[in-house]
Automatic annotation (TrEMBL):
Family, similarity comment: Belongs to the cytidine and deoxycytidylate deaminase family.
Stated name of the protein: Cytidine deaminase
Alphabetical list of SUPFAM superfamilies matching this protein: Cytidine deaminase-like
Amino acid sequence: MTATTNDDLIAAAAAVLNPRPVGDRLFGDVAATLVTEAGGFHSGVCIDTGSGTGFCAEHAAIAAMVTAREYRIAKIVAVWRNENGALHVLPPCGRCREFIRQIDPANLHTEVVLGRNVSAKLAELLPAHEWPSPLD
């Protein structure tokens, strides 16, 4: 598998950005793309709904990956474009970090893109992820 650069992944995520207002909500204003250890690319967008029933772009990309029967993420990024058109890389929220971990334990080694030249392993972003030892 050819190495995927941060810029490649950022561009792939930016390509699926498609903000759409629906009532007082906004769908598709954050997009995520991941590459699996097998080399598969999967993208998704966020859906902001009321009552906490929506989901992040990372969840949508991961759902597409699982649908394709893949579970191990080599690299992932999420992006958002502001009202002036500037593109931003967004770190995954805590819920997404835990979701990535729970899909496959090896995903603790997933490279999370945090910028054009910045990334971190999921384990660095999700400290204290192991089940605690008993007190007694």
